[in-house]
């Protein structure tokens, strides 16, 4: 799989503060723990 894109940018290229915010929002909305890029990628693959 390629990069997880956030507003047209790869997740790894957004600043660390926004990375943390994105992870917290997705975790909250999905009701599961997503704490890092690898967990985010695994979550995205399920979609």
Plain-language structure description:
The chain is mostly helical. It has one domain. 53% of the residues lie in helices and 9% in strands. It has 2 helices and 2 strands. The chain has helices spanning 16-30, 37-46; strands spanning 5-6, 9-10. Strands 1-2 form a two-stranded antiparallel ribbon. Strand 1 and strand 2 (9-10) form a beta hairpin. It is globular, with a radius of gyration of 10 Å. The mean pLDDT is 95.
Descriptors for this entry?
mainly alpha, 9% strand, two-stranded antiparallel sheet, 47 residues
In short:
The protein has 47 residues and is mainly alpha-helical. 53% of the residues lie in helices and 9% in strands.
Rg, rounded, reads 10 Å
Distance between the termini: 12 Å
Number of strands: 2
Mean pLDDT: 95
Q: What amount of the residues lies in strands?
A: 5-15%
Q: What number of domains? A: 1
Could you name the ranges where pLDDT drops below 50 across 5 or more consecutive residues?
A: none
Which structural class do you get from the secondary structure elements?
mainly alpha
Strand sequence of the main sheet, in spatial order?
Answer: 1-2
Largest sheet: 2 strands, antiparallel
Query: What gross morphology would you assign?
Result: globular
From N to C, what is the helix and strand string?
EEHH
Helix content: 40-55%
Q: Count of helical segments?
A: 2
Work out the oligomeric state of the chains in this entry: single chain
